[in-house]
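#lab-general

N.A. 3:47 PM
ok so I finally got the sequence cleaned up, no stray characters, all 251 residues accounted for. can someone with queue access submit it? mine expired

B.Y. 3:52 PM
send it over

N.A. 3:53 PM
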Amino acid sequence: MAREIGLNTLAYMHRFADSKVEQKEILQEIKGMGFPIVEVRREYILSGKTEMKEIAQRASASGLKVFYSVPAELFTAGVLNAQMGNYFEEASLMGAVQLKVTLGEFRGFTAKLTEEVRQLLTAYPIRLTIENDQSAEKGSPAVLMGFIAEARKASLDIGLTFDTGNFIYIDSDPFVAAKEMRDAVTYIHIKNVAVTENGITLSGLESGLVDMRRLLSLFPDSVPASIEYPCGVGDEATKTIIADYKKIRSW
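B.Y. 4:20 PM
back already:
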């Protein structure tokens, strides 16, 4: 089975910044390129729940599977983020099948915390996945796999999103991380980075530090992955997205 490749709307970052285009307006274009998955970003939603409902309608009509990316942490000072229920409701409004956040400050599962998380996972038929962020304290392989071990012990079905570029920010080898985390990864963010005089910056698919083709080969084809990096301005973005999508599918 070929790996499903999706598109995170970060690819259109410059279009959103320049003209305030709503994400719902590009769904047909994304489907037309051949993507089966769109990952909607919460920070790009301009019209709240009205837009979310329209995203659900248009995605359904286009046959697109919706993932939801939220720039928030699951835990704050060891307790469940009070907004998680709202994020799940938003994901549900969009017909999303997956919700992604980062870990935050996890200090172990108490009986109360376990039940709170279980209630969310039971109330919504939406996969919860945790992404490695750009901090060693919250996004290292050891920290994330420690969390997964506790989640599994508590019978909580939670997966990991493997961001291929973020490990560079914490001086962690993404290939070593892939081998350590492989068993728990349910989603991949394809993002490459380069080191410049200004520090670590996002790069093109094959112009960065990470051999993306080799890295992706370490994961089963059943694990979906999405392009998650700015692809340029105007028509340049569309051309880059199409070219990179074809290249990834050929691997």
